[in-house]
């Protein structure tokens, strides 16, 4: 049985070529346009920093980590962590992200 109402509309729209919400035509979060931001950063030799999620301890949230754990956090860009970073590889799935859960990896350096 197909999903009713709004769900069916969303699924149909996503299955259309170039449909809203697809990888080639993503929905904009807070009216941010990736292509425009990317072009701006390249032209101005500027590395993008997301104002909604800046690389600082306040982005993690209150009470999720102890102070000693917060002090050990090192914010890094993806290219520092892996040779060829990719945001989407092999398609997108609703199982790709663990929403509402903080995953903490502690890497020992040295």
How many β-strand stretches?
A: 0
Structural class: mainly alpha
**Low-confidence runs of at least 5 consecutive residues:** none
Helix share of residues? 25-40%
Main β sheet profile: none
Task: Give me the strand/helix succession.
Answer: HHHH
Average pLDDT works out at 75
Oligomer: single chain
Count of separate DSSP helical elements: 4
Cα-based radius of gyration, to the nearest Å: 18 Å
**Beta fraction:** under 5%
Distance between the termini: 56 Å
Shape, per Cα inertia axes:
extended
What report would you give on this structure?
The longest helix has 11 residues, at 5-15. This protein has a domain at 28-81. It is extended and about 50 Å long. It has helices at 5-15, 34-43, 67-71, 78-81. It is mainly α and 110 residues long. It starts with a helix and ends in a 29-residue tail after the last helix. It contains 4 helices and no strands. Helix content is 27%, strand content 0%. The mean pLDDT is 75. It comes from Alosa alosa. It holds the Pfam family Peptidase_C2.
List keywords for this structure.
Papain-like_cys_pep_sf, 110 residues, Calpain_cysteine_protease, extended, Calpain catalytic domain-containing protein, calcium-dependent cysteine-type endopeptidase activity
């Amino acid at each position: 049985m197909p999903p009713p109402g709004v769900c069916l509309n969303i699924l149909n729209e996503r299955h259309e070529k170039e449909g809203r919400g697809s990888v080639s035509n993503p929905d904009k979060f807070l009216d941010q346009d990736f292509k425009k931001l990317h072009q701006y950063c390249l032209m101005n030799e500027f590395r993008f920093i997301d104002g909604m999620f800046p690389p600082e301890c306040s982005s993690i949230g209150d009470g999720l980590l102890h102070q000693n754990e917060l002090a050990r956090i090192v914010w890094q860009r993806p290219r520092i962590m892996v040779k060829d970073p990719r945001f989407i590889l092999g398609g997108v799935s609703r199982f790709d992200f663990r929403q509402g859960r903080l995953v903490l990896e502690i890497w020992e350096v040295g």
